[in-house]
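INFO worker-7 received task bundle
INFO bundle size: 2
INFO processing item 0
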Amino acid sequence: MRVSLTPDVFAEATALRPLLNILNCFTTERHDWAATTEIIEAAYGYLEREASSMASTIAQLGEKAIVSSVWGSNSADAVQVSAEDLEDAADDLCQPAVLVVEDQENDGCFVKSVASALGHTRLIDAIDRGWLVIRHAGGERLELVAKNELLTFRRLSRIAALLDSDRWTPSDRTNNHVKAERLTALGISVHVLELREAENYVPSRILALIGKPAETSKKLEALKSLTPSQRGYYDMKFGFGPVASPPRIRAEQTELFSTIDMPTLLRLRGGFGRKVLAAMYENRARLKQSDLAALGVEQELEEMLMRIESLV
């Protein structure tokens, strides 16, 4: 998270403890300091008076902050911290950001796999170091869990939520979209997946590693014959019903899948099972940016990761 300190935070000796806590976040690269020359000079002078051993560190941090502002973002996109809210902001910045999900294991695998493929190493590092925690909520309790997490922050709402869309067709508006609107109104940053669920973002390169090779190969051949919309709302876990039964198509999807022939429907029964996202994570080293681009989901997933990362 990018943080900007106003000059008045360096006025009082009593500000030392929360200031040191925030500055420690900068030195460990937990957060980025968006600072001007004026602010750096104020910080250096303050610490020379109150904690002289830290002054040289602040000078080095200041140089890095200035270089960062030249080459990238500036204080305009940073969280502003003033003397009035210094203690509350310090507490909020020093506790982990929270990502609330429906399924901690599967959604955690999804986020970490996609972050790896798209080069979001800072996000992965934040998870590994406990700066971002992934909180299991289950579908029905997600709103309650997110609201409870919100109560742990005093001023800065560093909470994101990730939801499957649960759509059966591209135009569906589901209960999860309604949940997302309510959570957004509370100040929680929410991303609802465009496709049906996270499994629909798993490329063929990963799906090929699931199950018996001969069976999976035939299933993949059938999957590749689908249009992008059909693939995006196909039930990747269970397919068109059990393999021992005739293909089942939900009434809502009759039109969407009307162009698929019977041999393809038969091959796509049974889906790819419940461990699709676990397979994605186990084989994340094989996952490439180009795989996600080929599915047409790279931009959405970049936006999702940036939304989460902006709170860390």
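INFO item 0 finished
INFO processing item 1
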Amino acid sequence: MSATQFVQLTGTTIEEIDKLLAEVEIEVRQSLLSRSLRSGLTITRRVAKAILPKPGYPGDKPGLAPLRDAVQIRVKTYPSGIVVGMIGYRWPEGAHGHLPEDGHRIVIRGVDTGKISEAKKYLAKSVEQTEAEVNLHVVRFVESRVQQKVA
């Protein structure tokens, strides 16, 4: 994924999840945390797709997939037990995502115009806008699954 942003759960969220997960088997914990984070990140993906420009915007390159169609989420679980959630652009469709995210030199027909496009930071904005909602969603997801397993 190019132009990847990471979602960080707050300390309070982690503490709440740890209390809930203490009630389930160790083998189930990583799976549950991974599924809850993936579920929460769908909120961030929805917002990112909404704020990305619609296809056909000025400067859109014909032949390239719209970035809003290339937004994806990934959740990776490491052997140490750490679970990481990421949002970024699918490759190769979104390989150009770093250009609007970070800004770039404007080149027209192979000639550098000397101008630089502004960094839009669509993914960072979507992460910032949804952080509290994602944290709450992840806790509620784990809570509901733990209640189902314990009950």
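INFO item 1 finished
INFO post-check item 1: The radius of gyration is 19 Å.
INFO post-check item 1: The beta strands are 2-6, 71-77, 83-89, 105-108, 111-116.
INFO worker-7 idle
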